[in-house]
Structure formats: structure tokens, C-alpha cells
């Protein structure tokens, strides 16, 4: 499969976990991820907290969040992206590192999202995990490049 198809699978998984797997004809895995996304989203009140966060109502979004459920979301989301990318063709060694570190730091950001401020601003359960996840992805890309170069 060419690089364009791999990126297409990745982008569909970013849009909605499970769609990339369905495009890869991994139907059971795809439908499982879709069901997990719906269950986690519903129980964590994710759509509600996204709306509140986008409207600047961070304290209300924190109060509306079920953190016990939302803690699953970064890992399911990043796994869906990694798996769709991996199943669409051969991948390089260590290519999983940006996804793993993004999921890990996204979860850490979620854990601190109700209390930690950045420059005195409380970011809450949407913006803080996203910020930490992007940081994790960047660290993962750097680690991938270092390890991949050493392997060559």
C-alpha cells in the first residue's frame, strides 16, 4: 500500500477511532474501537466538556467530566491511529513511539487538568490533555528519529 493510503487511514482514525481499521478491512477491530469510543465518550460526557471548553467555561467543564471514564480516551484514541497506520502496510521500527508517548502524556495531562495552570491559565480536561499529547508526540518523534538513525 502506498504512503498516501497509509496517511488516509491515519487521518480517518484521527477523525473517528475505528474508521481506519474499517478501511483496512479489519472490521471486528474497527467496530470494537467505534463502540469503545461511544461508550467512553458518553460516560465521560466528552461532547459536553468539549462544548464548555470551547466556550471558555473551563470550571464547568471540569465539574462535568467523569475522569474515571475519560482516562481511557487518550490510549484508545492513539491506539486507533497507530493500529490503522500499522495495518495499512509495513512500518519502520520504533514508529509506534510518537503514539505511545502521545497517549501517555495525554493521560498525564488529563490527570492534572483540573489543577495545573499554564501561565496562570487553567486549561481543563480538553486543552491540557491535547497540549500534553502534542508534547508527547513531539518527544516520540524525536526518540524515533534518534533510535532509527542509530539502527541504520
Descriptive terms for the model:
152 residues; mainly alpha; two-stranded antiparallel sheet; 9 helices; 2 strands; 76% helix; globular
Could you provide a short overview of the structure?
With 152 residues, the protein is an all-alpha fold. It has nine helices and two strands.
Would you give an account of this structure?
The chain has 152 residues and is mainly alpha-helical. It has one domain (3-151). The protein has nine helices and two strands. The protein has helices at 3-15, 19-23, 27-44, 46-54, 58-64, 67-70, 73-87, 97-112, 124-151, and strands at residues 117-118, 121-122. A two-stranded antiparallel sheet has the order 1-2. Helix 3 (27-44) packs antiparallel against helix 7, helix 4 runs antiparallel to helix 5 and helix 7 packs antiparallel against helix 8. The mean pLDDT is 93.
Amino acid at each position: 500500500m502506498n504512503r498516501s493510503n497509509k496517511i488516509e487511514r491515519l487521518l480517518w482514525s484521527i477523525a473517528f477511532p475505528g474508521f481506519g481499521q474499517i478501511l483496512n478491512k479489519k472490521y471486528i477491530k474497527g467496530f470494537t474501537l467505534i463502540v469503545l469510543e461511544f461508550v467512553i465518550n458518553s460516560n465521560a460526557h466528552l461532547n459536553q466538556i468539549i462544548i464548555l471548553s470551547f466556550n471558555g467555561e473551563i470550571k464547568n467543564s471540569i465539574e462535568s467530566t467523569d475522569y474515571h471514564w475519560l482516562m481511557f480516551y487518550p490510549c484508545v484514541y492513539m491506539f486507533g491511529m497507530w493500529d490503522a497506520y500499522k495495518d495499512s502496510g509495513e512500518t519502520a521500527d520504533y514508529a509506534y513511539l510518537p503514539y505511545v508517548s502521545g497517549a501517555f502524556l495525554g493521560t498525564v495531562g488529563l490527570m492534572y487538568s483540573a489543577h495545573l495552570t499554564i501561565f496562570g491559565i487553567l486549561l481543563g480536561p480538553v486543552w491540557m490533555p491535547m497540549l500534553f499529547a502534542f508534547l508527547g508526540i513531539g518527544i516520540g518523534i524525536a526518540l524515533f528519529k534518534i533510535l532509527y538513525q542509530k539502527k541504520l
